[in-house]
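hey so u asked for the seq, here:
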Amino acid sequence: MKSVRHNLILEIIENKDIETQEELAEELKRRNVKVTQATVSRDIKELRLLKVLAEGGRYKYATVERAEKGMSDRFIRILSESILSVESAGNLIVIKTITASANAGCEAIDSMKWPEVLGTIAGDNTILIIARSEAAVDTLLQKFDNLIKK
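ran it, structure tokens below
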């Protein structure tokens, strides 16, 4: 019963903006699942749900994975909009960004988990990417070129 309820909770928060435990309990009751507020509270903890900012300034429940994806998407947008130049030397790529954008850009690169990237380092307006090999640099340069053109 618990696993069925957990799956139902995940389905509900995927399809509706649920802001409170009470709203979640009501949605479950509409689907013929009898729960108490205490049960819903335990389920939220067990599922490790977070409250994230939804459109319109309200908050809603989301899974950790969904919350991380939302953050990654924002960081990727910041990166694509802040790149000034991309250059390479050997297995290194240096990306120049507008001031104070490199940390968010570096987080975006890390979140993409590109297999060609060995590691990244960010300054204020510079990102250093260490590619796994010199051969991987061309692939990465193409990926950054595609990112900028979006």
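The domain at 2-62 is CATH 1.10.10.10 (Arc Repressor Mutant, subunit A). Residues 15 and 111 are 25 Å apart (CA to CA).
lmk if thats what u needed
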